[in-house]
Amino acid sequence: MIRQLDKVFVLDTKNTTYCFQVLETGHLEHLYYGKKIRIEEASDVRAIEEKHAFPPGNGNVYDSQFPKFALEDIRLEMSAYGKGDIREPFIEVIHRDGSYTSDFLYEKAEMYDDKKSLDTLPSAYEEAGKVSELIISLKDKQYDLTLELHYSVFEDRDVIVRSSKFINTSKGAVKLTRLMSMQLDFATSGYVFTTFNGNWAREMYRHDTLVSVGKHVNSSYAGTSSNRANPFVMLSRPETTEDQGICYGFNLIYSGNHYEAAEVNAYGKTRIVTGINPQSFCFVLAEGESFESPEAVMTVSNEGFNGMSRNMHDFVRNCIVRGAWKKKARPVLLNSWEACYFNINEARLLKLAKAGKEAGVELFVMDDGWFGTRNDDKQALGDWYVNKKKLPGGVKSICDKVNALGLDFGIWVEPEMINVNSDLYRAHPEWVMEIPGKPHSEGRNQRILDFANPAVVDYMIEQMVNVFSSANISYVKWDMNRIFSDYYSKHLKALHQGEVAHRYMIGLYRLMRTVTERFPHILFEGCASGGNRFDLGILCYFPQIWASDDTDAIYRAKGQTGYSYGYPMSTLTAHVSNCPNHQTLRETPLATRFNVAAFGLCGYECNLAEMKKEEVEEIKAQIALYKEWRDVLQYGTFYRGRSDNIYEWTCVSQDKSKAVGLVLQKLVEPNTTYEQFTPKGLDENKKYRFYNIEKKRNVKTFGDLVNAIAPIHIKNDSILHNGIDKVVKMPGEVEDYTAYGDVLMSGVKLKSAFCGTGYDENTRFFKDFESRLYFMEEIL
Ligand code: GLA
């Protein structure tokens, strides 16, 4: 609910309050953001407003008319550069007289019972709960410019979405060099700024930085939201834990260059800003033109990181993801990439699809290699017509044959890219992002199409519509495999080159919007060399994203934990692949590969047609189990436990009648036999059966320890040893208890782990990289 109490604005959600007021100078002073507090009349904020009696020494008085105010130390909703505030500004404009100084002051407020969408960028929406919007208009009277601050209050989600709009109401052009989406000032310092960084194959590693002085920046100039620095960030206190303490979460509904800075000023106040990266950004706006920032999402919880994550997950699932697949069970797929790479043809693919069908998969995906002369990654991007040598009957023939097996069919595309060695480049070199006459830096041998040029976007809409209507396509993997360099649009004049990166995003979003609206039944999956563009902008069009090219389960435990802070598991795809793993060469148990992938949208990416029978049988059982529990795993509430040498996750169904838990161990700690699993989120008053599924062990996994029990000596790896291994299986431990939720959540003590002093059916065999799933079902 949004209320205006005289000059005070109060924005309440179910559990939080956000509050600011108009100062006598016309600036907006931030007062509070946190757990819900009671503000009934304007005078209720007198206690929490700062008392501005005189400006601090060496500070600039804002204006002789208001001698008490120095902007440098005031908590502001929005800060412009040049009138005394020397912190991170919200907006920067270069005026016609060459000055950089702006001063935006309160003009009016409007309130609405719904929320408007942005014109050029994707927006959050609400269809099941309450949302209202406050628009504050500010005016720079010296230069006749207008700035709007938008606040959308998602009451039932404990989320506020902010954005801003700059309108050139003056006579003549100005240059906008920075426009943030969100600014938030706190009265104190010592917050922990958490960012999620990495690179290809190691996305979303959590980094905590204590910001007690100076500035810490998380940003991307990769052209994408990037795997280097995801736009989702958190602010918390040093004492905040997974389940206790205050935690703020921030994200941006944007897929391009972004910027998040946390700064502590000389008075110990903390400011955080989020928005488009101002680096090399310059929009020239003629008289009457406007510019809108992406939407920034913010939430706060007193229930630690998990509490904040629950808010974000609920918001992303309900207010970002849309379309026919929003709440639908996602299919178990088999992707051809790691099984075939570029070496595909109809017979090979069909053999793989058939093996997939037998194992229980529901969707077969033909990855890269099916179009033009795409025999390697040096050619053919841009040529979106089928390679008849590989697929003589076209996409339709393979699709029909895969359908005839009883599987849906999916296809891979990379519409934003072009190889110099392609028909498209030969026909339209002017459509490529390159600086005329200058050498170009390539990534994965490819260049980027100039989506700042609407004609290029129109062409690609046509191409994609052709591909997607060429057969009964149910799924599309939309890839994007390089970062930007040599930013330049041949379509724009020199003065406008600072607009390229953002205009590219506007073009991309138009392409995505058009094709997803045209093919509403298709399940689209975003991908950018894995997670190089995992963000809320993409999720407004594609309900799921390939989280990482790295399918190694031990990396994935860390990466998926990283993602889980800001993104629900229903947006994150995870595949079981072969071992040694193709990215790390690590060997991990097949069970662990599945157990980790099962917490995301589980699929397979391995040569099922050539795997051992025993492995295929195991995979069959995995897929059956996943289908049985996928409702809980895909749409349940996710909780993190420990994330160190041991990872603990719990996923609980919405009605709390079922839950699945994971315990994963990276490396064995010798002689630490007692381990516990602590489920979270259960109903304290419900009684559950807690159990695992027994897994028998091969004798050979114990090596020559077999002699500790064998009546005759067995030589390690001998014919006898191998023979016994085939017929004798060792029992796995069985855990099976019934207890109330509160009992289980105090920590279920698991069977003792093997520690070199004995082994029987009550011993938990828990080597390096072992894991277990635990199932909880309400007993009625
Ligand atoms: C990227 C993707 C992979 C695969 C290849 C195909 O690397 O992340 O999953 O699709 O491209 O070239």
Describe the structure.
There is one protein chain. With 780 residues, the chain is α+β, with helices and mostly antiparallel strands. The protein contains 13 helices and 40 strands. Strands 6, 7, 8, 9, 11, 12, 14, 15, 19 and 20 form a 10-stranded antiparallel beta sheet that branches. Strands 21-22-23-26-27-28-29-30 form an 8-stranded parallel β-barrel, surrounded by 5 helices. Strand 31 and strand 32 form a beta hairpin. The longest helix has 23 residues. The mean pLDDT is 97. It binds alpha-D-galactopyranose. Alpha-D-galactopyranose (GLA) binds next to loops. The site of alpha-D-galactopyranose has 11 residues, from loops.
Concise structural overview:
The chain is 19% helix and 29% strand. It has 780 residues and is an alpha+beta fold. Helix 6 runs parallel beside helix 7 (500-518) and helix 9 (553-566) packs parallel to helix 10 (590-597).
Bound ligands, named by name, code or SMILES: alpha-D-galactopyranose
The radius of gyration over CA amounts to 28 Å
Mean pLDDT across every amino acid position:
97
How would you sum up the global shape?
globular
Helical amount: 10-25%
Low-confidence stretches: none
In DSSP terms, counting alpha (H) and pi (I) runs of 4 or more, how many helices? 13
Distance between the termini: 40 Å
> Helix/strand/pairing class, anyone?
alpha+beta
Strand content: 25-35%
Number of beta-strand segments: 40
